[in-house]
Design a protein that fits this description.
136 residues; mainly beta; Jelly Rolls; four-stranded antiparallel beta sheet
């Protein structure tokens, strides 16, 4: 029989030197179709007493490195802020994974992500062969 260790819950704040949040890999309901990712909005709250630089990166597979999409600066403010990480041209993919990182140490009561909105359009009838020919 396995040993079980019980630990008392501690809800005091914690801090980290580098904050990174990575979403799961989304196929937006159909893994066989290509999509155009046209806009990405992230709603955050920055209660730090300093300016923060957010970096959004993405990848279009479950493996490999992330590509930097955009960087946004944010000042101290008590309300939520919507950051626009929209690409300069649409990202064509079957799968999309997003990573948000912050350039300085944060605690859980000073910073949080409230919402991530990704606006995309499915490309119906867009085959793999057509895509590979277009990127060559």
């Amino acid at each position: 029989m396995a040993d079980i260790t019980l630990t008392k819950w501690d809800d005091t704040g914690s801090s980290t030197d580098k904050f990174e949040f990575t979403t799961k890999a989304y196929d937006f309901g159909t893994s066989s179709e290509f999509k155009n990712i046209s806009k990405i909005f992230v709603t955050v709250k920055n209660a730090l007493n300093a300016d923060v630089v957010y970096t959004a990166s993405y990848r279009t597979s479950t493996k490999g490195s992330f590509t930097v999409l955009a960087r946004q600066s944010s000042s101290y403010i008590t309300d939520d802020q919507m950051l626009d990480f929209s690409p300069s041209s649409p990202i064509r993919c079957k799968l999309f994974q997003l990573k948000i990182s912050v350039n300085q140490p944060v605690t859980d009561d000073e910073f949080y992500i409230n919402d991530i909105s990704i606006i995309f359009r499915p490309l119906r009838g867009y085959t793999t062969e057509k895509f590979e020919t277009e990127i060559k």
